[in-house]
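Trying the structure run again after the queue cleared.
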Amino acid sequence: MARMKRKRVFVEKELLFDAMLFTFGVAAVALLYKNNLLLTVIMISGWITAIKLWHVKHDVYLFVTAAVLGSAAEIVAIKAWLGRCYCSSNCNDA
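Done. Tokens:
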């Protein structure tokens, strides 16, 4: 019984830390959206903190793969179809 209680407290602390890190990230984006370099440094430091504390090696592979594939998909979409809408304020083609 005591072991389950300790595990539950650990999970609650971890969820609290996750929520605080998420809130910090959203606040950083909202407050520093004009300073891209500082925002990038803050977001990377938050990511490294999260990786060091509770993620394992295969999570890093998943994050990097998703970042590369997401960026590639956005490039293809912009080049193929969406570029007309990004560059024009009057996009009636969509």
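The chain has two domains: 1-55, 56-94. Worth checking whether this holds up in the mutant runs.
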